[in-house]
Amino acid sequence: xxxxxxxxxxxxxxxxxxxxxxxxxxxxxxxxxxxxxxxxxxxxxxxxxxxxxxxxxxxxxxxxxxxxxxxxxxxxxxxxxxxxxxxxxxxxxxxxxxxxxxxxxxxxxxxxxxxxxxxxxxxxxxxxxxxxxxxxxxxxxxxxxxxxxxxxxxxxxxxxxxxxxxxxxxxxxxxxxxxxxxxxxxxxxxxxxxxxxxxxxxxxxxxxxxxxxxxxxxxxxxxxxxxxxxxxxxxxxxxxxxxxxxxxxxxxxxxxxxxxxxxxxxxxxxxxxxxxxxxxxxxxxxxxxxxxxxxxxxxxxxxxxxxxxxxxx
Length: 313
Ligand SMILES: Nc1ncnc2c1ncn2[C@@H]1O[C@H](COP(=O)(O)OP(=O)(O)OP(=O)(O)O)[C@@H](O)[C@H]1O
Prior knowledge:
- Keywords: ATP-binding, Nucleotide-binding, Transport.
- This protein is α/β, with parallel strands linked by helices.
- It has helices at residues 12-16, 37-40, 66-69, 126-133, 183-187, 198-214, 231-243, 261-274, 287-290, and strands at 7-9, 26-28, 84-93, 103-111, 115-120, 141-148, 160-161, 167-170, 249-253, 280-283, 296-301, 305-308.
């Protein structure tokens, strides 16, 4: 089963131009299942079971405890990296075969369960950066890792490189790439169809239920056509697809784009809840609406230079 799918990333920008509704950010090699384009925008596309690249060994990820999934029991976000911190250090990027410097020594960090926002002019390099964070392309130099800290504030071990399989990413307008005619099929599109391995299926079903509760989709029938959902609920569905794996880092590219005011408010409210459980990094131009939930913000300047800066609102 593990060897069944092998998704190879290709240029995601190129992928977005595809109109067939079939995965296009990844080359599908020797596999019997299709991949929806919305999942192509996810690094989970590497392996539907583990969230890792298909050729890596399968290590089931332990579900979080019940209490850690209960929003009411969540702790307030703190700015110190008390437990773990996602860190990017001196990352530069030149597309292979070019002399273009799209990112220049980008460094920043984001404590777990906090909300970071990157803003900046069109063409400055925001999407390029999130593609590196998601493992879709590799930095020319620099590192991306998770640092863990003890109660004394000192690192407890050497930093671990951030595995692309532990990053969830939702690109702009994810609903454009829905391919199934019901919610359940949409969420489970890339899942194994073979008979057997009941334990794995039960595990996936539990994760699915948790993800659906997390994004507040539990009141929606799983038979509903995803295209018939409201704008805000479509975004919830796209998030649920990513949350099945409980990513160490959830990246959202323009999560409010194209929504009416009510759906925008709905998504902001949802993100406010989600940041109690997840580390979230957003690229957006909608600074005013997101300001209330932003813990850290950076401006990407033309030429791929990132500077920490308060929101200019
Ligand atoms: N593979 C590539 N080869 C050459 N240039 C590229 C490549 N990928 C992106 N670029 C260029 O790099 C610059 C940064 O692009 P990027 O999409 O990261 O900007 P952005 O800040 O996300 O813009 P927007 O807000 O419009 O999405 C752009 O000028 C883009 O044309």
